[in-house]
Amino acid sequence: MKLEFRSSCMIASALDLIGDKWSLVIIRDMLLHHKTTFKEFIASDEGVATNLLSSRLKYLESIEVITKNKLSTNKKENIYLLTKKGTDLAPIIMELVIWSENYVREYHTTMNYSETVNMDKDEVIAYSQKEYKTFADQFKNQIVS
Prior knowledge:
mainly alpha, Arc Repressor Mutant, subunit A, two-stranded antiparallel ribbon, 10% strand
């Protein structure tokens, strides 16, 4: 796949890869809510359309942020897991939570609250990455090659 970048700016280039409306929501669902299947992603409150979710999952797989696997116990359903590249987005997710609490709440007063806003962000990031790795490791012996 040939990727198009609008400039040589590091921020613009990163946004060209993961800055669409759905990528970070999907990564959030995987990292923090341990969602792994198409059905679980569709059930998210944001209501992504099935065709958009499908194309976004394929795209995230193509840039190696996620992997798509089949389990020996269920060869019909795909499960999606974050790669290291995907879990390394945890600091960005955390910073968005903090920024949102500080600046978005005034516009969206019924927005969810996260207790992590007042915690040490480095600890929260490390914990969420470790927790996800433990979660994902349970699938390693079940993945069909």
